[in-house]
Every structure is written in structure tokens, then in C-alpha cells.
Design goal:
- By secondary structure, this protein is mainly alpha-helical.
- The chain has a single domain, classed as Farnesyl Diphosphate Synthase (Orthogonal Bundle), CATH 1.10.600.
- The chain is 72% helix and 1% strand.
- It has 16 helices and two strands.
- The longest helix has 26 residues.
Length: 337
């Protein structure tokens, strides 16, 4: 997997294959989300309509759809309903994240809290979660209900853990992994496991897909955190430095502090202790990241999770769905959007 260390100029096309192969089902997911979020309260409708139009990769919903197909699910609409449910959990957490981080822009558009304020954004995020739980109850499967409700709880705990360690440049790598597992990887794991639950496959395949999703999520988040400091890469619609200016400690900063001199580490601590950072501060951090080759170190860490995710799929026979899912592991690392 050494070729993954250096980001490729060519985008891995497995994500687009994933979208194309599930295009019709994904359209039904979008319809389901729009219908479920409809409200007689004008402000709720206005805010949810705005959120829907901001789009997104819908990766978690697509993972539910393709996992169900991989396991042989081919009748009914439970995959559509639960893919919509997974996406609503993700959307709600983004709304709450933006409030906590005082986020201004997401997907190249103003955040809900920037337009309508924190109070409305928190309540609309709660509205999305309540709609999601309605859909889980409507599905009627206790295993699904237990999995997704537990996942929602873990995400919230991960958010609190990150808040607890905000600005802590000497955070343990183990703590960082706990945070991203809870905040990101657990929902990936739930998305893929739900697809297996729908299909009534044996526990080995359920666990394999859950393991695949969790490690895919870890790869995805490490890549996302690394992109935020990758000044060598031209990004599509993504401005670097978001985590830095929100005072989030992620893997690039953790690995950097393991390599720097005591003087440099003290400088980093002083920068992250500042209430208002500027471009000069950020450029100093970028210079150290380049000096110590931190970007490559981050991607080497992520390769471990790529291998784990790929190996998990050995429980399944070869088919087009499996090929796409294998490709997604490297896409998660190579992507620049």
C-alpha cells in the first residue's frame, strides 16, 4: 500500500461507481429525507429545505445501500428508509458540530447557525434526530433500533470528549483515535452493519461489515484531518486550516508534537492557547508540518486501517459491489474533496 502515502493526482473513481450503481435507490433516499423533514412550522421547513439543498456526498447512506446489496437484499424499501435514517443522524451531528465550533461555512455555503443562530440550529438538529428515531421505530427491527440509538449516543460522547481536549496539543494519539472512532467511525460501522441486518445474514458477515465500516471511517477521518493541513494539494471547494482556526487538535498536530524540538513545541502550545489565531500562526504550523514530513506520516497511519477494512471483505464472494467497496478504502485516503 506504499503508493497511497503520496496523494495521487487522479481521483479514485470508486465513489462515483458507488453513486452510479445506486443512483435510483439514492434518489429514493433523497425523496424520503425531504418528505420526512417536511414541517408545518415555517422556520423548520425553511431551515431543512436549505440544508437539503447544500447536498453532500451521502456516503453513509450509500454504504447502507451497497452493504444491503452485497448481502443479497433485493426486495422492499427498508434499505432506502434506513439509509435515509443514517444520513439524518449524520446531518444532525453536523448541525450540532457547527454550533459547538461556531462554524461559518459548510459545503461552500453559510452554516445554519450563521444564518439563523445557534438556538434554532440546535433545535432543528434535534428535530432531525427525532424524525430519525420515528423511522427506526417504523422499521420495527429491534436490532436496528438498538444499533442506531447506541451509535447516536457514542457520537454525542465523542463530541464531548473532543471538547474536553480542545486545544490540548500534547493529546495522546490514543485519545484522538477514541474521538474519531466515536464521532465518525461508529456511524460508518452502523451504516454498513444495517445493510447486513436487513438481509438476515449470519453474525460473521454482520460483524465483517461492521468492522469494514469502522475502519473505513477511521481512514476517512484521518484523511479529512490531514487534508486540512495539506498545503501541497489543491482542494475542490475546501479551504485548509478549518480545524486549526477552530482549535481542534487532530493527528497532524499530535504527530508534529512528537517530532519537534522543545522550543518548537512550546511555540505550538502558545499558538493553540491564543483565542484569536492569524494566518502567520497557521503558516508557522504549516512550515513545521512540511519540515517534519507530517503529511506522509499521517497517511502511513491510515494505511493500517485501509488494510483492516479491505481484509474484512474476505467474508464475501467476489462481485461488483465488493469491488466498489474495496476501492472505497483507497478513495477515503486519496480523495481531495
Amino acid at each position: 500500500m506504499g503508493t497511497v502515502v503520496q496523494l495521487k493526482n487522479k481521483i479514485n473513481n470508486s465513489y462515483f461507481q458507488l453513486r452510479d450503481s445506486n443512483e435510483q435507490r439514492l434518489a429514493l433516499v433523497e425523496e424520503r429525507i425531504e418528505k420526512k423533514l417536511d414541517s408545518h412550522v415555517e422556520l423548520v421547513k425553511e431551515m431543512t429545505d436549505y440544508h437539503i439543498k447544500t447536498g453532500g456526498k451521502r456516503l453513509r447512506a450509500l454504504l447502507t445501500l451497497i452493504s444491503a446489496k452485497l448481502c443479497g437484499y433485493n426486495s422492499g424499501s427498508r434499505d432506502v428508509n434506513l439509509a435515509a435514517c443514517v444520513e439524518l443522524i449524520h446531518s444532525a451531528t453536523l448541525m450540532h458540530d457547527d454550533v459547538i465550533d461556531n462554524g461559518l461555512v459548510r459545503r461552500n455555503k453559510k452554516t445554519l447557525n450563521q444564518i439563523w443562530g445557534n438556538q434554532s440550529s440546535v433545535l432543528v438538529g434535534d428535530y432531525l434526530l427525532s424524525r430519525c428515531f420515528e423511522m427506526m421505530v417504523e422499521d420495527g427491527n429491534l436490532e436496528v433500533l438498538k444499533l442506531l440509538s447506541s451509535t447516536s449516543s457514542k457520537i454525542a460522547q465523542g463530541e464531548v470528549l473532543q471538547l474536553q481536549h480542545k486545544g490540548e496539543v500534547d493529546m495522546l494519539e490514543e485519545t484522538y483515535l477514541k474521538i474519531i472512532t466515536a464521532k465518525t467511525a461508529e456511524l460508518f460501522a452502523a451504516a454498513t452493519k444495517v445493510g447486513a441486518i436487513l438481509s438476515n445474514v449470519d453474525s460473521k458477515k454482520k460483524e465483517a461489515l461492521e468492522f469494514y465500516g469502522r475502519n473505513l471511517g477511521l481512514t476517512f477521518q484521518i484523511a479529512d484531518d490531514t487534508l486540512d493541513y495539506n498545503s501541497e494539494l489543491k482542494l475542490f471547494g475546501k479551504k485548509i486550516g478549518k480545524d486549526f482556526f477552530e482549535n481542534k487538535i487532530t493527528l497532524p498536530i499530535i504527530l508534529l508534537c512528537q517530532k519537534t524540538s522543545e522550543k518548537e513545541k512550546e511555540n505550538i502550545k502558545n499558538i493553540f492557547s491564543k483565542e484569536n489565531k492569524d494566518d502567520k500562526d497557521f503558516n508557522y504550523i504549516l512550515s513545521l508540518i512540511k519540515k517534519y514530513n507530517i503529511i506522509s506520516d499521517c497517511y502511513r497511519k491510515a494505511e493500517h486501517y485501509i488494510n483492516l477494512a479491505g481484509n474484512a471483505l474476505s467474508a464475501f464472494d467476489e462481485d461488483d459491489n465488493k469491488k466498489i467497496m474495496l476501492g472505497l478504502t483507497s478513495f477515503s485516503l486519496e480523495r481531495d474533496f
